[in-house]
């Protein structure tokens, strides 16, 4: 198998605690940022800035910011869930409901769960990560003639993948945290880090060395499930 395909297949969301005492070395961080630098972006607009946070005092302050689960998230999350390994293997998309507290995955209990939920400090999401990469973009700009800036968002995704593959190849765990973009959390982080108003947080990568293996079932559709040969609907290649 080619090296690049192996790295692509082995990359995964390292949704486990990281060793807080093991720093990501500057030289490795620079390689991840070099991969970021060479990201393809629409019109080469390079529509991102990355805030590297590895100062323990700043990490602690971020960790104290509280996030609240939203009903919108829970309802839309539910649509992507499977409730057994067999169901997930059959569907080949989505994730297992067992990754979430039981009251989050029962549609009849979601409204109540949201009302009762206590705000959680981000430290529970950061889980020992010694380095965060907070990716921000200029929400006033857009790729030329790209409605809703879809090309700009795709570009931010390319950035994510470039950094993720580089981290993977260096043996560094990476986990995407979308929670930093939730309006109330974003506001507090921007204030703390002095981020100008016109920038928005796209996502945060938590980096580090996992303390254990990420044990969850990863599924993908087969090539013939998403490939159409010369005409939509013609399967097989
Ligand atoms: C744009 C984007 C946002 C994501 N946000 C989160 C997130 O907030 N929390 C999380 O645990 N995973 C997040 N993920 C990771 C996906 O859930 C994950 O890539 C997918 O389930 C496939 O699993 P794998 O990364 O292990 O292959 C995100 C991924 C992408 C591309």
What top-tier CATH class of the largest domain fits best?
Alpha Beta
CATH architecture of the largest domain: 3-Layer(aba) Sandwich
Secondary-structure element sequence?
HHEHEHEHEHEHEHEHEH
Nearest-integer average pLDDT: 95
Count of domains: 2
What ligand molecules are bound, each kind once?
A: flavin mononucleotide
End-to-end separation in angstroms reads 20 Å
What amount of the residues lies in strands? 15-25%
Structure description:
- Helix 2 (26-37) runs antiparallel to helix 8 (150-169).
- The chain is globular.
- It has two domains: 3-67 and 122-217, NADH Oxidase (3-Layer(aba) Sandwich), CATH 3.40.109; 69-118, no CATH class.
- Strand 3 (81-82), helix 5 and strand 4 form a beta-alpha-beta unit.
- The strands form three sheets. A four-stranded antiparallel sheet has the order 1-6-8-7. A two-stranded antiparallel sheet has the order 2-5.
- It is built from ten helices and eight strands.
- The chain is an alpha+beta fold.
